[in-house]
Amino acid sequence: HQDYHIIAPLVFNIYCLIKTEHFKNRKWSLIYGISVGAGLMIKDTFSSFFFPPFLIVLIQSFRKEFKTSSIINVMFSAIFACVISGCHYFRLPIFEKLFNEPITDPGGPVFSFESLRIMTIGLWEEMLSPPLFLLFLTGVIWFIIKYKSDYKYPFIFCILVPWSLITFMPLHKLIDFAVVFIPVMILISALFISHIQKETFKKIIFFVIIFTGILQYIDFSYGIDTKLFNAGFHYKSHRITYYNKKNPFIIYYDNKTDNLKIQIIEYLKTNYPNAKILIKELRLNIIDDLAFFSWLHLNDLNMVYDDIFHFPSLKGIDIIIDSKFGITPEELIASRINQFCNTFQNKGNDRDKKLFMKQLKFLKEREKEINANFHKVKSFDFEDNKELIILLARNMDTGYNCTKTAYTDKSN
């Protein structure tokens, strides 16, 4: 997600906004306009982060002594921003996307637990750990009640408005959307600590954060299960954890304990380094995951896989990763329909139904082609499951030889 990409531009944008001195400084007003245009060119969601603090500072400027020169500086900022980003944004399809995307990409009922969870307790489960989250939460309360500065409300609205938009709009939510808050979270937390009068309290806070951070790093990054961070509790049918170790988007690139994946990759590198590999949808949560896909790419293995609504053809495919426990085309499409209905909260229209029927027909024909043109060359066991993963290679008379030893392995 490009939300990570707008962290630095947003920090620079807020810095420039402060340096404008409520748009009294022309040089920094021009630079501010450039920062706005550059941020918008990275991703359109930048608008929801830069605009609230800009509007607050603009209102503050009008309430104070607002001279003609300040109005000119604001206009220059707007002109520079439009010159940089206007070529992209001043188009009808872009306006339609900005207005329609939050509605046409729904993620379920807004007030469901799983929807609200992402931008609330998900901030500690997926992004911040509980100690940092509590520090930030305490800092926000202190910042709102005690902190005195002209830039108090711009910082508050820089978090409050985007957070509200993400939380209460019926769009598909990811914790990635919140990473842009990190600089402001750090700033507010640092301001809170710096205003603590007693040095003893400061030292205790620093010690707890640093010590906990080191333990978390060891536990999380090296796979050393210290048992210290397995705590959690249940709310109705949901389990709330210290942090989400099982997040499928977290990839352990250097994991040396996943023997099944390591065996498969070593076998493919040795016997089929130049082959194009298809990973079928297995629904096993063992091999068809992001970590395995990334490992294949990092080992220079050419790979395609069944995506949520896309299934590659067998054109150019030399190796197929399959399982004897794999699901049938009918089961796969049924799961896709169920996933579609749960995600978009509707039963689909005629176009959607035609698409699913077309995919079902394609998968059936692909299975027939696999049975006719591929044969088993290797199988892998996992725990008590014999031949859980099966490698299929294209028959020699229907494809080309990937390596000198390709299609000659008769083991298993």
Question: Your description of this structure?
Answer:
This protein is an alpha/beta fold and 412 residues long. The protein contains 15 helices and seven strands. The protein has helices at residues 7-19, 26-42, 46-63, 68-89, 92-104, 113-118, 122-127, 130-145, 152-168, 182-194, 199-221, 259-271, 290-298, 329-344, 350-373; strands spanning 232-235, 238-241, 276-279, 302-305, 319-322, 374-382, 385-394. Helix 1 packs antiparallel against helix 2 (26-42). The two termini are 42 Å apart.
Architecture blueprint of SSEs:
Blueprint: H1 7-19, H2 26-42, H3 46-63, H4 68-89, H5 92-104, H6 113-118, H7 122-127, H8 130-145, H9 152-168, H10 182-194, H11 199-221, E1 232-235, E2 238-241, H12 259-271, E3 276-279, H13 290-298, E4 302-305, E5 319-322, H14 329-344, H15 350-373, E6 374-382, E7 385-394
Parallel strand pairs: 3-4, 3-5
Antiparallel strand pairs: 1-2, 5-7, 6-7
Percentage of helical residues?
40-55%
Main β-sheet: number of strands, strand sense, barrel status?
Answer: 5 strands, mixed
* Anisotropy-based shape: globular
Question: How are the strands of the largest sheet arranged?
Answer: 4-3-5-7-6
Report mean pLDDT, rounded to a whole number: 82
Q: Number of helical segments?
A: 15
Alpha-carbon distance between the termini? 42 Å
